[in-house]
Design goal:
Number of helices of chain B: 11
Radius of gyration of chain B: 20 Å
Shape of chain B: globular
Number of helices of chain A: 14
Shape of chain A: globular
CATH topology of the largest domain in chain A: Rossmann fold
Largest sheet of chain B: 2 strands, antiparallel
Structural class of chain A: alpha/beta
Number of strands of chain B: 2
Order of helices and strands of chain A: EHHEHHEHHEHEHHHHEHEHH
Number of strands of chain A: 7
Strand order of the largest sheet of chain B: 1-2
Oligomer: heterodimer
CATH class of the largest domain in chain A: Alpha Beta
Largest interface: A-B, 71 and 67 residues
Number of domains of chain B: 2
Distance between the termini of chain B: 26 Å
Helix content of chain A: 40-55%
CATH class of the largest domain in chain B: Mainly Alpha
CATH architecture of the largest domain in chain B: Orthogonal Bundle
Structural class of chain B: mainly alpha
Distance between the termini of chain A: 41 Å
Number of domains of chain A: 2
């Protein structure tokens, strides 16, 4: 399949559909606006989280990921995702299985028990890459009806969108520009801030290992964005979203400090700039509240 | 059981290829991994020390270090290592070996419980179904949680790889052994 494909198998994962469905709604609406359809993947499971299940048992992580890839292959569609964890897991599994016939055979022995097979015929795409490269910045710009001219956005890439760069293929992980490009299309500014490339703190089982310690990473990141004069943070990862939005409530419970720094998934922010309402993209359901300048 | 280095090559090698993990031998203790580590600035995790401990076969010391679990797998060290050590994958492999030998916390084991029970590490509940309806989506996505026959496929994988035994999962109570009585094994 190629970049031409106008229908994607939407791999939902866990956090997007089960905690922040506004991300799912916004993504589907934007893609549809540009003539791109999304189909449900019946029976898809957890990706499973690359730093979590990859840390516990890679020999379980891989067949579970391969089963998800096989579902999209049966649909004869490329995959689109809205979480860096899903992106990392599925793309890495696809990469490893394609490059290692013995591993593929062993994995298919497990999948064969219930009649599935990994063939290596789908491609794993991140939704923000579809926006940037398939729809393209010029076409996106035509649909911006509510420019974000006076908004300073702290862009947060998350880790597994860019790294490992040898697998992801989005260029330098030290100097990325894809999110900046997308934000600038809406008229928003993207100031540099100290902890721009820092992890949200959630991955690799770190949030589960020690929640308070992991929230400290988040706190440092958010404070450095606030100090740089940013109005909100925009990112491409449902798991980061959970940490950065829900984490602010957890931080309030632990320390009594509520930063209320607005957190938006990329398609939620672009949805607003395309004239969608706060409610349509689920931003009224969050811990962090959106300021008037994003909703005007 | 060989040395820790040999076990890293065996366990991770099957997935990533042996040469990928053998990059560990190239470590010159320069500390660039530690310098850029977002965990290291907040926790006692010292990636350089971890690499050296692995090479010195300090298995028990590593497996009993809480810091082993404070890496968020952000791959900053992996990207920057001047000697090409695949640091993050070395750490993930060490964690696999630690988990296999029983060094896995109850909260970490519970993540597996959720996936075996529902197909998802973060399952849906009634409140979240309402959130979905509010944005115009079906109350439940058509994932493994909704389809029993699909969930059984996911469960079959966890059985085939003996993940269930690794975390002491009880298929009768669908949780960790001893957990249904409020116990903590």
């Amino acid at each position: 399949m190629s970049e031409e494909s106008k229908t994607y198998a939407y791999f939902l994962g866990c956090i997007t559909p089960n905690r922040y469905p506004g991300i799912e709604a916004a993504t589907k609406k934007i893609l549809k606006e540009f003539g791109i359809e999304t189909e449900e993947m019946i029976g898809a499971s957890c990706c499973p989280a690359p730093g979590v299940f990859g840390s516990f048992d890679m020999h379980t992580w891989l067949p579970v990921a391969a089963r998800n890839l096989a579902i999209a292959e049966e649909m004869d569609l490329d995959i689109v995702v809205t979480c860096n964890g899903c992106y990392g897991s599925l793309q890495e599994a696809d990469h490893l299985l394609r490059g290692n016939p013995k591993l593929k055979e062993e994995t298919n022995k497990i999948l064969g028990e219930f009649g599935r097979e990994f063939k290596g015929t789908t491609k794993v795409n991140h939704s923000i890459v579809v926006l940037h490269d398939v729809i393209g910045l010029d076409r996106l710009k035509e649909k911006i009806t509510k420019p974000m001219n006076d908004v300073n956005v702290a862009v947060h890439y998350g880790c597994h969108f860019l790294k490992p760069s040898e697998v992801r293929g989005h260029g330098s992980s030290d100097d990325p520009h894809l999110l900046e490009d997308l934000m600038q299309v809406t008229g928003a500014k993207t100031p540099e801030y100290k902890d721009k490339l820092m992890c949200c703190g959630a991955g690799g089982g770190n949030r589960t290992a020690d929640a308070i310690q992991s929230l400290e990473w988040m706190r440092q990141k958010l404070v450095s964005a606030i100090e740089a004069g940013c109005d909100c943070m925009v990112h491409p990862c449902a798991f980061c979203h959970l940490q950065l939005d829900r984490g602010q409530e957890e931080m309030e419970n632990a320390y009594g400090i509520f930063l209320n720094f607005p957190i938006l998934f990329t398609t939620q922010f672009i949805g607003l700039a395309m004239g969608m309402s706060e409610k349509e993209v689920g931003l009224d359901q969050q811990v962090t509240k959106m300021p008037d300048k994003l909703l005007k | 059981m060989g040395t820790l280095y040999e076990d890293i090559i065996d366990c991770g090698g099957e997935i990533f290829g042996e040469e990928h993990l053998a990059t560990l031998r190239e470590c010159v203790q320069c500390g660039k991994c530690t310098g850029g580590c977002p965990s290291g600035r907040n926790t006692a995790l010292r990636t350089r020390k971890l690499m050296q401990m692995a090479l010195l076969d300090m298995r028990e010391e590593i497996f009993n270090s809480p810091e082993l679990w404070f890496c968020s797998t952000c791959y900053t060290c992996y990207e920057r290592c001047p000697k090409g050590v695949k640091v993050t994958d070395v750490i993930r492999t060490i964690r696999n070996l630690a988990a296999k030998e029983g060094h896995m916390s109850v909260p970490h084991r519970m993540i597996g419980v959720y996936v075996m029970k529902t197909g998802h590490a973060v399952p849906i509940g009634p409140d979240q179904m309402k959130l979905r309806e509010a944005v115009g989506l079906d109350s439940q996505p058509p994932t493994a949680q909704k389809h029993k026959d699909q969930l059984e496929q996911v469960q079959a994988i966890f059985k085939a790889t003996h993940y269930d035994a690794m975390i002491d999962f009880d298929w009768g109570t669908m949780t960790l052994k001893g957990m249904d009585k409020g116990g903590k094994k």
